[in-house]
Amino acid sequence: MSLTLNHYLIFSTLLFMVSLGGIFANRRNILVVLMSLELLLLSVNTNFIAFSKFIGDVDGQVFVFFILTVAAAEAAIGLAILVMLYRNKKSLDVDDINELEG
Description:
It is a single chain. This protein has a single domain, classed as Helix Hairpins, CATH 1.10.287. The chain is built from 3 helices and no strands. It starts with a helix and ends in a 13-residue tail after the last helix. It catalyses: a quinone + NADH + 5 H(+)(in) = a quinol + NAD(+) + 4 H(+)(out). Its EC number is 7.1.1.-. It holds the Pfam family Oxidored_q2.
């Protein structure tokens, strides 16, 4: 059985729906929100790679490297904010971010 473009698109759509569900169902814990954003970016990357493979062009794969770079920076900054939030408030609640002052 060979994988077609529809298989990749269905997988990407399922990943996208799971990530949206994670963002909207659990808005209280910021760690879950950040992990859901990473899943959302992964679903977009899957689309880029699938279309790049089936069209035969490398541009989509190059775009994925840029997205992965931005995702890595976002994860590093997000985790640094989480560490500071947990040190100050002893909680990872999204509502506690509004109380932080710099």
